[in-house]
Description:
Elements lengths: L2 E3 L11 E3 L14 E3 L24 E3 L12 E7 L8 E6 L4 E5 L9 E2 L12 E3 L8 E3 L19 E7 L2 E5 L5 E5 L3 E4 L15 H6 L54 E3 L4
Antiparallel strand pairs: 1-2, 3-4, 5-6, 5-8, 6-7, 9-14, 10-11, 10-14, 11-12, 12-13, 13-15
Amino acid sequence: MSVRKLKPITPGQRFRVVNGFDAITTDKPEKSLLAPKKRSGGRNSQGKMTMRYKGGGHKRRYRIIDFKRNKTGIPAEVKSIEYDPNRTAFIALLNYQDGEKRYIIAQNGLQVGQTVVSGEKAAPEIGNAMPLSQIPLGTVISCIELHPNQGAVMARSAGAFAQLMARDGKFATIKLPSGETRLILVNCLATIGVVSNSDHQLLVSGKAGRSRWLGRRPRTRPVVMNPVDHPMGGGEGKSSGGHPRSRKGIPAKGYRTRSKSKASNKYIVERRKK
């Protein structure tokens, strides 16, 4: 993993920091695992804008990712590490021994030619998917299921990882990327290792146009709006805007919005830090 700082030959490249893409081995995706990706531009079925600051952007095709890792006990060879425009992490193309091909989220250190496998009898090595009951304590994991056979939902973005802290009965204690410590059933799957592309946080876009390429339109600051449009709007000259809050009046910066009666509260051992 590396990043490159470009020479300032244009204003847009002066502060630009780009990914070195050292880990990427091919620029041609597997055709059988591509799907069309429609975009709404933030409009509903009537054509009315229901989500602001969305629209435009480069055309993308969705890569069908195997989050469930349910081909248990069948070894697969890593054929390539690829870029995915729909996520921050890199993806790996697996060739299973029975001939099937699947994409998975690539972990740091996953190499072309390496063999990965999922299931209870897998070894705790990078890229292998195992139930939490079989993973050694203290292991760094990612792509974690919240419910058995649901598919990975946690720790999937670039550089993300969690840690298996303890096991007690049918629950395992996991320290999540947010800092939250939570109980998860031991028969949920997780993948060994840290998610790839950990240098993603170091990238600098360099110009506003790159946000447009990603489908993000300019965002209007609340303090420059009128009072009718936002609680922080209005005032003479450069007003501070008052206490930071959302368009609907919900306070920002530390206000807890989680329901006190939520059923899954009992599985949270320690909340994430403020």
